[in-house]
What does this fold into?
Amino acid sequence: MTGFEQVFAVRMRRLLGAAAIALYAAATWAVDGVDVGQPSAWRNLVPAEQIERQASAEYEQLKRQAAAKHALAAADHPQLLRLRSIAKRLIPYVARWNPRAQQWTWEINLIGSKQINAFCMPGGKIAFYWGILDTLKLSDDEVAVVMGHEIAHALREHARERMAKNEATQLGATLLGQLIGGGRFAGAFDVGGKMLTLKFSRDDETEADVVGLDIAARAGFDPRAGVTLWQKMVAANRAAPPQWLSTHPSGDDRIAEMERHLPEVLPLYEETRR
It folds into this structure.
């Protein structure tokens, strides 16, 4: 074998070895929980730091407003302690979906309102409203599914993506090209006051459902609670549409989609019980 042939053979072995590792990793990912693909490239048009700073500012304002109305739960409130305990179990599994989340300063608060609502802002700012816990009588597993869903929106950066699309539409293609070309796009966004009014797409909601089930299952919460949760939501919707449903489409199709993914997440849950 010539020197060239030897070098070629070594390179081919390395290439095939790398390909085998990549295929194994892809296969492992596919069977180890859910796979929803890569996040939207749109989000890259808005700096993550900008969105997170704005979210933090809005969250602080929300807390101040709630405190002024004596509606912000005290640190020793039993339901707040419950929420923080559940979050503590979920958060170790966020890096799989967004490595940046390891740097977030996570915060969980409870607001005394009858609204059936909950959210997680970019940067890990979580809030639950009393109504969603009390009206729906949520179990810990169901709380984990709700929290996992909202955390998934933040991890998959749906707000960042939505901001980029909204602002790109307003700016127009020509101006957008100029701003990107000149490196000035970061300063073109005015996201103030919009975080809590964003409407996510149906695809965003489905993705958050699926990722949320995955996170909850890894943390030792029964993902089948996603089905019972939405059965409760549908029943509550018949009486009076909860605010949570204004941005979270529900119905038989949504429950069916969760049931379709249960075979992927139930093994994760069962593993925690061994």
